[in-house]
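Contributing: when you submit paired examples, paste them exactly as shown. First protein:
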Amino acid sequence: MTTTYKRGDSDERPWGRWEVLESSDNYCVKKITVTPGSTLSLQLHHHRSEHWIIVAGEAVVTLGEKELIKKADDAVYIPVEVKHRIRNDGRENVVFIEIQTGDKLDENDIVRFEDKYGRI
């Protein structure tokens, strides 16, 4: 098991920001903020699953073929190789905690299918 994430890593993205709160060989915990009107790419991962806990705002989550509305205290489990994304249709930031687990935790383990910011 490997992770390239380190506590304190962060990145600004066209949709908002992520920050690594904690990492180890087999897990990574991120705080992710999605700004109003923004959408992450429709994507999947070959080496990790993700657990999302919404802590602020209201999110539209695509999980496989379903769209789910999630609010603070709601959780979503994303298995390995399941297409997913999160969208913020609201007026306030959506903030969620993402816990990644798997045999390879790396920002390069992203396969994008749709991206409104042209990152395919």
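Second protein:
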Amino acid sequence: MKAQYDNIDEYIRDLQEAIASSDGQCAAHHYNLGLALLSKRDFMGAESAFRDALRESPHMAEAMVQLGGICLQRGDLDGCLNYNTDAANCRPKFAVAESNIAFVHLQRREPDKALKHLEKALKWDPKFVQARNEEVIALFMKGQYAQSEEHCRKLLKDEPNFAPAWQNLALALYEQNLIAEAEEAMLKAEKLGYEVAEGFKQALAEKKSRA
């Protein structure tokens, strides 16, 4: 939202007026309207705005990614995959789209497919936190716990307050029977606001008691 606006509703009204005065032919206004509506969790309105943006600018990869996110929000993995694939095809070296494609494959328990897209994303944006975290998860899914731990520690070196990575580290350590270290990582994740599953807490406590 622009700094001169006091609230999001005022910004939305100005965007709608700008769209009306230009006969709707401004992809950027439609896209910004979509973002503003997303911030209010108006997913239907946002979806309509992003579709309008694509009508005016059919190769706007950013709008495709946002539509993919809306699909994901309602559980439509196919839609998310399709929109992000289109975005990756429209814009060369688009790390966000490749990472989002990888996320869908992870949801489908397809780590090898995910890693292929993550390789591209991290080649183009080596510090991309989302992609780096997905790489950790993909390696874990493949049972490569030591490699998952290694990549997770590298991520945490750069992003020490990224709570999901602490929990992923805890999982990798747990699978290697490094229980004390796993517990420490889990507690760090919780301290940073991550909601750890009760099942994992119980499993960790049981292993600790048998150690």
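If you have annotations for the second protein, write them as plain sentences, like these:
The two ends are 54 Å apart (CA to CA).
The mean pLDDT is 94.
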